[in-house]
């Protein structure tokens, strides 16, 4: 797809919504300035030549502060992770300003034009990895992981053959950027109707464990947690579910 129609208006609306309604306590932030910084990161540029540097100003304007022990990462479990974080007062990247602004959107520009490209933006697999959307999530995810402290949780999808995917952002960017002495708590969740396809002792999680031990990151894994992926049922049902993730109280 090309850029999301009305990209600029969406960014602006979301920014006001976030800074005035969702997190009115957050540091005062200038939404016009943030929108401008976002646009100037990619407008008029080759859509396959995104760099970290392009986003530096935007990131400096909206750097999140998230307390220790509060971060939730995910891979192929986005909706569930968001619900889980919300119930427990924890934070996913989409709960920070920049993650919230860009969630679900597409954007790119073209050289020599002041406008967004609305017909086609490059794809990570088919065209180029250094496209503006992929680089954005990479930079944000990297910072979110490397600044984490205490216990970080991650929800992985045990209904897949490889719950830990080395090519995902969690696998490529977040896990390898956790700091020594951080503890990673893995929750391996699977659809209640089906048998799990991966487990804490499976080869993909073993691989994750070895990446972490090289970095002196501590590792805890719990599996057989049944829940719908993505959440189709409402929160009340999840609370009642006898062996569901939401009744686990082992995390702090
Ligand atoms: O590639 P993934 O998941 O492992 O990435 C998820 C991981 C999370 O822990 C987040 O902190 O990386 C972060 N992240 C986002 O927050 C995010 N929001 C939207 C990464 N990607 C994000 N997106 C888009 O979804 C982005 O386009 C990316 O490629 C997908 C990630 O999907 P995934 O494979 O389920």
Give an overview in words:
The protein is α/β, with parallel strands linked by helices and 252 residues long. The chain has helices spanning 7-22, 31-42, 56-61, 78-88, 97-102, 132-146, 169-174, 203-214, 235-240; strands at residues 72-75, 151-157, 183-190, 218-226. Helix content is 36%, strand content 11%. It has a four-stranded parallel beta sheet with strand order 1-2-3-4, sandwiched between helices. The protein is globular, with a radius of gyration of 19 Å. The chain starts with 6 loop residues before the first helix and ends in a 12-residue tail after the last helix. Residues 73-76, 78, 93-94, 99, 103, 137, 141, 144, 168-170, 174 line the site of N1-cyclic inosine 5'-diphosphoribose.
Compact summary:
With 252 residues, this protein is an alpha/beta fold. It has helices spanning 7-22, 31-42, 56-61, 78-88, 97-102, 132-146, 169-174, 203-214, 235-240, and strands spanning 72-75, 151-157, 183-190, 218-226.
